[in-house]
Amino acid sequence: MDARYRLICRLIRLVLTLPVSTATTERSFSAMKHVKTDLRNKMGDEFLADCLTIFFEREYVIGMDEDSIIDEFAKLKDRHVQLTL
């Protein structure tokens, strides 16, 4: 009898760990379809992640001042890759 209860308890734990829906995953792939188009097919993983972050947080980004972002970028010293031969 004790073995049955252990199996039932294990089954309940497994059922509770299953995801309820795949909506979050589907939204992520839908967003990636909008961001990574055929023209942007060769973008790197880090740049793609940054673009997706901006896409997901677009309500927050819309309220930002573009000039202040440009000024902050201009203050950065090391923003170019140094090529050595």
Secondary-structure element pattern, one letter each: HHHHH
- Biggest beta sheet attributes: none
Structural category: mainly alpha
Straight-line distance between termini:
75 Å
Number of strands: 0
**What is the radius of gyration computed over CA atoms, rounded to a whole number of angstroms?**
23 Å
Taken from the alpha-carbon principal axes, the silhouette is elongated
- Given as residue ranges, the uncertain stretches (5+ residues, pLDDT < 50) are none
Q: What is the share of helical residues?
A: 55-70%
Protein name: HAT C-terminal dimerisation domain-containing protein
Keywords: Signal
Organism: Linum trigynum
Domain HAT C-terminal dimerisation: 3-57
Describe the structure.
Residues 3-57 form the HAT C-terminal dimerisation domain. This protein has 85 residues and is mainly alpha-helical. The chain has helices at residues 2-17, 23-35, 45-56, 58-62, 66-75. The chain has a domain at 21-75. The longest helix is centred in the N-terminal third of the chain and has 16 residues, at 2-17. It is elongated. It has five helices and no strands. The model has no long low-confidence stretch (mean pLDDT 80).
Question: Summed up, what is this model?
Answer:
By secondary structure, the chain is an all-alpha fold.
